[in-house]
């Protein structure tokens, strides 16, 4: 299988890693939701050698595994198939030991039900002290959406009406209902955000 390539991964990997280093300093096994091409998995596994990185995706598993095999890193597990729009309970058995979850540029792509399942899954598998981190663009009630994100949101909805930039307050409410507490929300390049919650 040929490796797929996403230029955005090259642009954002370093700045995301800088944020993840302190957040995941005490973690041991990370489940990445929506691993895409596999570039992030390799970059973060190399930059966070104390972690075992478990990539997952609905599709493109061949590309993720091609990046993994080329890297020869021992702390990346083979990609697993994970579809948040299917019943979560069926996918829990192979996820033991995970104490953190990372989800990059995925919440605005998948249908809202997928975000609901994301936090349902986090609640099921993460232990006390477990971290869930998300990255991407968000809407906030206290200021208008940036022009570039307005255009991006229109493009997303034209491509798939079920997708679109999500409202931060709605996502945070999901996290709270799942038993998580907001720990940080910081601005990133290109009008993106790094947001993370911890399970008390």
Description of the structure:
The strands form two sheets. This protein has a seven-stranded mixed β-sheet with strand order 3-2-1-4-5-9-8, sandwiched between helices. A two-stranded parallel sheet has the order 6-7. The chain has helices at 7-23, 39-47, 61-71, 112-125, 147-159, 168-177; strands at residues 29-33, 52-57, 80-81, 100-104, 131-136, 138-139, 166-167, 181-188, 192-198. 37% of the residues lie in helices and 22% in strands. It has a single domain, classed as Vaccinia Virus protein VP39 (Rossmann fold, 3-Layer(aba) Sandwich). It contains six helices and nine strands; from the N terminus they run αβαβαββαββαβαββ. By secondary structure, it is α/β, with parallel strands linked by helices. The radius of gyration is 16 Å and the shape is globular. β4, α4 (112-125) and β5 (131-136) form a beta-alpha-beta unit. α1 (7-23) packs parallel to α2.
Largest sheet: 7 strands, mixed
- The residue fraction in helices comes out at 25-40%
CATH architecture descriptor name:
3-Layer(aba) Sandwich
N-end to C-end Cα span = 41 Å
Mean pLDDT across all residues, rounded?
94
Task: Indicate the CATH topology.
Answer: Rossmann fold
Provide the CATH top-level class.
Alpha Beta
- Global shape: globular
State the CATH superfamily name. Answer: Vaccinia Virus protein VP39
Total strand count, please? 9
**Domains, number:** 1
Radius of gyration, in angstroms, nearest whole number:
16 Å
Strand and helix order: HEHEHEEHEEHEHEE
Structural class: alpha/beta
